[in-house]
Amino acid sequence: QTIARLDYLPYPYRLPQVELTFDLDATLTRVSSRLHFERTTPRNQPLVLNGEDLPLESIALDGQVLRPDQYRLDDHALTLFPVTETFIVEIVSRCRPAENSTLMGLYVSGESLFTQCEAEGFRRITWFPDRPDVMSRYRVTLLADKARYPFLLSNGNRQNAEELADGRHSATWEDPHPKPCYLFALVAGHFSCHEQTIQTRSGRQALLQVYSDPGSESKTEWALASLVHAVKWDEQRFGLELDLDRFMVVAARDFNMGAMENKGLNIFNSAYVLADPQTATDVTYRAIEAVIGHEYFHNWTGNRVTCRDWFQLSLKEGLTVFRDQEFSADMLAQGLPAQEAKSARAVKRIDDVSTLRMAQFPEDSGPMAHPIRPESYQEIGNFYTATVYEKGAEVIRMQHTLLGEAGFRAGLDEYFRRHDGSAVTCDDFVNAMESVYTRQNPGKTLDTFRRWYEQAGTPHVKVELDFDARQQRCTLTLSQHNEPAGIEKFLTPPQTKLPLHIPFAVGLLDQAGRPLVIHYQGQAYDTLVLELCDERQTWVFDQIPEAPIPSLLRNFSAPVIVEYAGTNAELALLAQCDTDPFARWEAGQELANRQLLALVKAVQDGRELAVEPDFIETWRALLQDTHLTPAYQARALTLPAEKVLLEKTSPMDPIAVARARAELRRVLGLALGPLWLAAYHNADDHTGKYQPDARSAGRRALKNLALAYLMAGEHREAPTLALKQYYDAQNMTDRMGGLSALVNFSDTPAGSQALSHFYEQWQHEPLVIDRWFTLQATAPTTHIDTIRTLMQHPAFTLRNPNRARSLIFQFCMNNMQGVHTTQGYEYWADQVIALDRINPEIAARLARAFDNWTRYIPSSRQTIKHELERIQAQNPLSRNVAEIVSKALKI
Ligand code: ARG
Ligand code: ZN
């Protein structure tokens, strides 16, 4: 059944105080609650509590035990009929953590107990109004065997700890901040702890702690350092101070997502906590910093101000992703000279936009397309999407662009002034921003902008440029097209899309590639942000001496697709000269897209695959440009991802795309061989001491890219270099670079020997073994039989989400040659079905691997449809997977 955004009704009760007692045990945990309710309406109202899999032991109202005929117990709801305005409900219920494989609610990971409550996990712990607009103060007592569970953690401050009889002990925690139950957490188990005390801006002392498996504390240094940076950064950039005496992060081996911002007790997937140079790559280091930042920033954007209902999820997620992106960019740029800092920030932007294009653009054109604030859902767990998160962050970023840094800060201050301590909506956020925007632009509002929250789909912006040499006048016309997205295409009447408010940043270059000044309304601009609010608008720029080359959508100022019929020569010039590093990268990518699409066509027609010499020359120029940082060069010289390309083919032909991309890489590797070799040796860092900073990581990225091109181009020296790099590596980034080169580009004994060697060496490091599975799952030579064999490997298990992702998801989603076969599709459906019995949320993510199946070539389409129907026919089938599959089949 479907829940609709517009059906929101406030809860008829307040619940200011909650007391919980947990008698913890992995097999059977008893939870006792004492809930202090206050009616908010004049008349009596039934009190409805949510519960899932929670046998009731007893229930009492104001101290009177209730008989079964005094309440109603349905599958997922417990209804009481109180007759006073305030009353206390006491409930005792049980749950079974060790049997809970969903990893929602209270569950076991390793030897320890953890909780995950967002979005609707608290109802698996105790009967409760499980909705974010009910906010309470919590007092929590944990009781457990002391030898098994020496640490007992929950939100807030520890009030007291007691030794009990029979080797048991207890701890009581009190959280002074009212919170919705999705921010509740408890952890019990054996940990090592790395901690640091810091002084916050106002001079308060705060204890920061990172807990992880005993023995892994040496791997938590980076996470703790990142947390310290995050606390300082939020003070400096947004004036937001830590409001707790103690802030804890705990790493769990089994975790459905990245991490969770429970108040004062963040629980993390260990993949986003543990790092040392031997086991983590540069990418991991950056990801840890980003996720630590993300969860910490939620303390204000999410926890202090939370969501009224789950349709508002992007209120906290879009905003917090924007904040973590800015944090990462500032950390990368920190300490670098201005030009290099600008490049470092651009690298982060490029990576974020690449993610958006790989994950969100396909989503926005498929059966799960939804606005960043969805209108309806069947299972909220399915809406932790790239649209809510990544497009949501773009929508926040556009407001930042429209208001400017100072204006955005003023808007955010206003947002907290209005809403601190409450549960609010996306409209409330835009209203706060609008108060500043209207002050800056008298008579203008964000009314048109609000449509970004209502409309799904990626807008297209068409650009027309006209130059009048006699008048030295340039006329720029932008028009926007917003097509129905996903199942909207099948709605009758079709939804009509309205124009959006699109900040569109442009610059102009002269024919030699030098920047032209744009004179507009009495001001001179290098980059001008045009505000496109209508279907079609025109801007006129005078004093333009020659026909300009436009640099469009600088810094990716809006999440749109630009249509502009520039020539390849113009793109090549932009790729070599544009002063906006993002647009410069973009021009190179667009050239590559054109070249690759021509190759795809040739593959399909069975023609010879020919690469334009001009294209190779652009790549040569980028590779030889000594002004570029290695990190930037690594991005500029990487071809668009298969997924990005696939979106541009119709019908979608994954195998042809993979072949085209591999061929272009081979040709570039071959044609530029000596340059790649020089770049490889230049970027090599002989000092040996590993540092994860932007500069060092950039060198490693370029070095590993060069190695991949050398392998692709079958350079004589390449296999030796790769072997040497693998066996001599002093850190995991180099080791993986060497190993991937061996495994991805050849099917030789040396490759499989290195793989065995790697396994032998790292078998006791689960996060490293995940890499081992991933590498094999994504190698182009890997076929379904290898995958089935790997599933039999003693280290493989479906129960650990990281492991399942490392093999199954990586194969199904990132190995086009391997998966797009009849057997591959059958394997995929088998795994969705198997996972659904264990963990519906994870199964539903895998179920989305071929969301866009109706746009595939006919042979694929038929098989996938058949497999989708097979999944749909399963009984039982989780609500999570049922929603995904029914939408996929409706399209
Ligand atoms: N709020 C968390 C974060 O983005 C994600 C929690 C998602 N939980 C889930 N069961 N889907 O930081
Ligand atoms: Zn988040």
Verbal overview:
By secondary structure, the protein is of the alpha+beta class. Helices cover about 40% and strands about 20% of the residues. The strands form 9 sheets. Strands 6-5-9-3-2-12-15-14 form an 8-stranded mixed β-sheet, with no helix packed on it. Strands 17-18-19-21-20 form a 5-stranded mixed β-sheet, with helices on one face. A 4-stranded antiparallel β-sheet has the order 10-11-16-13, with no helix packed on it. α3 crosses α5 and α22 packs antiparallel against α23. The chain is globular. The model has no long low-confidence stretch (mean pLDDT about 95).
Strand arrangement across the biggest beta sheet: 6-5-9-3-2-12-15-14
Low-pLDDT segments, ≥5 res: none
Beta-strand residue fraction? 15-25%
Summed over residues and divided by their number, the pLDDT gives a mean of: 97
Largest beta sheet, briefly?
A: 8 strands, mixed
Helix and strand content put the structural class at alpha+beta
Helix content: 40-55%
Bound molecules: arginine, zinc ion
Beginning-to-end CA distance, first to last residue: 19 Å
Which word captures the global form?
Answer: globular
